[in-house]
Structure formats: structure tokens, C-alpha cells
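Example A, followed by Example B.
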Amino acid sequence: MTEVEIPETAPDVDPDLTVDNRGRGCASGIARVQRALEDLECGSILRVRSTDRRAKREYSQLAAQTEHELLAIETNRRKLIRKEYTTYLEIHRS
């Protein structure tokens, strides 16, 4: 399996919904994202904010296992050691 290149720059779109998972672990964060995905219409943009270092892997896997398109994952350093990840997903349904 080859690794997919993940864009690191936010798309030039306004998100329809933001899930703020900063300070939460990925397991509870993914559950919140999955609930949000159920409520969004096709073509909507979901922005997920996270401080969990597994965000890049977890949200990439979520997109690969669903029809949703991973648009970008931005990484920003906050303070000395804390990183924040902002993920953008476009909702697709068959």
C-alpha cells in the first residue's frame, strides 16, 4: 500500500461545521467527527481541530475508509511544544 500525499494548506473554502477536538484523545474525537459526518449534506466541508498527535494518521484513515475526501491537514505549533492539527474533509455520499 502506498502512502497518499496529504495537502498541508487549508482549502480556500468556508467550513460548514467545525468539530473542536482540542484536548481530547483520538478515540473520543473520531466518535464526535463521525456523528458530525452523519448530519452534513453531500458537498459540505467539515473542519476538525485537534491536538492529538495521531490526528494525521487517524483522519487520513477515516477518509480512506469512507467516501469522504481529505482536502488537507494543517499543522501549527502553539506555544513551545504543543501542536494543533486542522483537518478539512469534504462530505461525499453515494
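Example B, a separate protein, is given below in the same form.
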Amino acid sequence: MMAVAVSLIGGYLAGSVPVAVLLARSRGFDPRDVGDRNPGFWNMRRRLGWRAAAPVFAGDLAKGTAAGLLGLLVSGWHTEALGVVVPPSTGPVYAAVAAAMAGHAWPVFAGFRGGRSVLTFAGGFAVVCLPAFLLALLALALVAAVTRSFAVGARVAVFGLPVAQLPFTPVEQVAATGALMCLIALRFGQAALAARRR
């Protein structure tokens, strides 16, 4: 229980670091007031371009990875040879990643106005199941090359992660990954409702 508690608290605080908001403020604006009002990579890329928005991409990924590694560390670092988390580390790692996603969505350091947690989820998943994460990166590269759209490749990669995970973990862990993705769906739904009200 202590490992889960530390994972939840540490994961939430890591996820709450508002990378996009901090970068945008240094450029004189708040991403929550422009574009689609999402303080994340895509909105920043549209506003600033790829190169200037790259720190947001890296930072939001790193938040999830840092949270997952914290969960792994406090639970005794139990993994298989390929880098797949196994019990008793599974629960704390998933808890840390979920908390980081919640922190990104409702950050304590940014007035609880956050993003959709996609990159934070992906970064955390790299700790959960590294081989599936690498397969997703390959899928991203292939789909992006064929469609000439990084956005399409990224969607295929992220939402294909549970499928890529199936050969490496029990189905219960795949279901847990699906549960994490429900938070992303919730945030997209909230954003759509907010856009209708504007």
C-alpha cells in the first residue's frame, strides 16, 4: 500500500508540471486561451511550429515515464527481461501512470486546467511494456510515411498500444491499459462539450 500511495502522489505531482503553459508564457501567451485551448503539444505546434513545440512533446512524454519509473522503483523494480512490468510492480506502476495522467489533465500547478494526457499516457506506457511501445513507434513511422501525416501515425500508434501489448502481458494488464485510455476519452469528451458551449 505504501508503494501505491507514493506512486499516486509522486505521479500526480510529476504530471502536474505544466510544460506547455510554462513554455507558452515565456512566449507571451497561454495555450488555454488560443487555438483549441488544449495545453499540449498539438496546440503548441500549431501556434509555434514543430521545433519550438518539441520541448512540450518531450516534456509531456517524460512526465509519464518519470511517474512509471517511480512506481517501478518504490515497488522493487520487478520486470521481465524484455522490460515488461510484472507483479508486484504492476499495480504501483499503473497507479503512478494513472496519477500522472490525472495530474496532466487537472494540474495542481496550473489551476487544474490541463490537457488530454495522450503523451503522458504514452510515456508511462513505455515503462509498462517497452516492447509494445517500440512496436507502436514502428507503426507510427510506417503509417506516417505512407499517409504523410504524423498526426495519423500518432493516433494509430497510441490507440494500437493495447493490441501491441497483447503478446507480452496477461489480458488483465491489457484491460488496465484500456482503463487508462478511458481518461483520454473523457478529456476529449470534455473538450468537445466545452467547444460547443463557446
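On Example B: Residues 1-197 form one domain.
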